[in-house]
Amino acid sequence: MAARKKSSGRKYGKAAGKSVKRAMHKRKAGTLKSGAGRHPKVKSREQAIAIGLSEARESGAKVPRKRSAKKGAKKSSTRKSAAKKGGRKTASKKRARKRTAKK
């Protein structure tokens, strides 16, 4: 039988939790911004959590590494899938429509 790997405790440290909590409170108050300067206010919960975690990462708190894309994973082209759905038009289709409109 293969021995199972034990879990090593907490994934995120207490400092990371505090940082996320602070970001969530700022979001609730409407004072959390997405960057330095004139960037817009953060309204989404997920973005507030991401900001809190990145700040915790910078300060050296225990936070897991960001996930990277798997090797060999196929990327679906947004242009092709959007064109199939009828959302975004490709350049060649736009040119063809202009030609027919001029006639």
Textual characterization of the structure:
The chain has 103 residues and is mainly α. It has a domain at 14-59. Helices cover 50% and strands 0% of the residues. Helix 1 (14-29) packs across helix 2 (45-59). The longest helix has 16 residues, at 14-29. 12% of the residues are buried. The model has no long low-confidence stretch (mean pLDDT 81).
Structure summary:
The protein is mainly alpha-helical.
Number of E-type strands: 0
Chain-averaged pLDDT = 81
Please tell me how large the radius of gyration is.
23 Å
Low-pLDDT segments: none
Any chance you could write out the topology, listing elements then pairs?
Blueprint (H helix, E strand, L loop, with lengths): L13 H16 L15 H15 L18 H8 L5 H12 L1
Helix pairs in contact: 1-2
List keywords for this structure.
mainly alpha, 0% strand
